[in-house]
Structure to design on (79 residues):
């Protein structure tokens, strides 16, 4: 079985050093803009429920279809 490919190895290793699980570190390091400086993202509270749902789907949060907006925000922040 081939090891999954990580787009941003440096970010992955930094997240692992901070105590993130392998799965969570890989998910973050494999996002489109992995490792880019930002700070321009809107707070989740400003997102629509559909936008939150789409983001939850991208990062693989299970049970998202039954979640409220507040639950989606919490799940995204704790994922």
């Amino acid at each position: 079985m081939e090891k999954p490919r990580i787009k941003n190895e440096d970010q992955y290793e930094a997240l692992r050093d901070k105590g993130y699980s392998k799965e969570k570190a890989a998910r973050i390091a494999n996002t489109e803009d992995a490792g880019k400086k930002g700070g321009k993202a809107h707070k989740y509270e400003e997102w629509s429920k559909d936008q939150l749902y789409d983001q939850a789907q991208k990062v693989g949060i299970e049970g998202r279809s039954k979640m409220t907006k507040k639950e989606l925000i919490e799940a995204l922040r704790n994922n």
